[in-house]
Write a structure and sequence with these properties.
The complex is a heterodimer of chains A (about 110) and B (about 110). With about 110 residues, chain A is an all-beta fold. Chain A has strands at about 5, 10-15, 20-25, 30-35, 45-50, 55, 65-70, 75-80, 85-95, 100-105, 110. In chain A, the strands form two sheets. In chain A, strands 2, 4, 5, 6, 9, 10 and 11 form a seven-stranded mixed β-sheet that branches. In chain A, a hairpin with a 7-residue loop joins β9 (about 85-95) and β10. Chain B is mainly beta and about 110 residues long. Helices cover about 0% and strands about 60% of the residues of chain B. In chain B, β4 (about 30-35) and β5 (about 45-50) form a beta hairpin. Classes of the chains: A mainly beta (about 110), B mainly beta (about 110). Chains A and B meet through β4, β5, β9 and β10 of A and β4, β5, β9 and β10 of B.
Chain lengths: ~110, ~110
């Protein structure tokens, strides 16, 4: 298995809702990442998990809450989002946190209404 | 922080033409990757190429780390090559690695 799987593919949520994005990989990678991509822009790093521990938080607002339950799973919990948070959310993994290639999932396209 | 610049920002080609995309970066890096993002948003890894030259079918890439640039060559372009091509470089910190993207080159191949 050489894929990173993200669910759901599309999500529409209200500003008072709570939802979660899920990411799964079975390549034995020990580093996992969340990126956010706005239209016509490159992906921007949000969080890095290394060996199931949060190692980098790029000053992301607390309405985004990451979780790594085990080495294969990565979640992003969403609460009280704003319309400007609408974007493509991409999950990625790499063998180690640094020095190896990244594999990206197909993303969750999020719309906040 | 490290700057990653890609050129050209946009490129329109006739099917069958060749092209070269360039990526310049401002500091030494641990790793460099080229990605193709299709219209559905999927980022497809083309090359993991911190240095040297690699080829995969009609695509090839060269990274000259000492001069801080990388090139992606597309030969005999096809309409399915359309999309955005990103160069991304990685810096490693105590806490882990950060993959930093350039602004991308949007390629449109016309039949």
């Amino acid at each position: 298995d050489t894929e990173v799987t993200q669910t759901p593919k599309h999500l529409v949520m209200g500003m008072t809702n709570k939802k979660s994005l899920k990411c799964e990989q079975h390549m034995g990678h020990r580093a996992m990442y969340w990126y956010k991509q706005k239209a016509k822009k490159p992906p921007e790093l949000m969080f890095v998990y290394s060996y199931e521990k949060l190692s980098i938080n790029e000053s992301v607002p607390s309405r985004f809450s990451p979780e790594c339950p085990n080495s294969s799973l990565l979640n992003l919990h969403l609460h009280a989002l704003q319309p400007e948070d609408s974007a493509l959310y991409l999950c990625a993994s790499s063998q180690e946190a640094g020095g190896s290639g990244y594999t990206f999932g197909s993303g969750t396209r999020l719309t906040v209404v | 922080g490290i700057q990653v610049e890609q050129s050209p920002p946009d490129l329109i080609l006739q099917e069958g033409a060749n092209s070269t995309l360039r990526c310049n970066f401002s500091d030494s890096v641990n790793n460099l990757q080229w990605f193709h993002q299709n219209p559905w948003g999927q980022l497809i890894n083309l090359f993991y190429i911190p240095s040297g030259t690699k080829q995969n079918g009609r695509l090839s890439a060269t990274t000259v780390a000492t001069e801080r640039y990388s090139l992606l060559y597309i030969s005999s372009s096809q309409t399915t090559d359309s999309g955005v091509y990103f160069c991304a470089v990685e810096r490693i910190y105590n806490q882990g690695g950060k993959l930093i993207f350039g602004q991308g080159t949007e390629l449109s191949v016309k039949p």
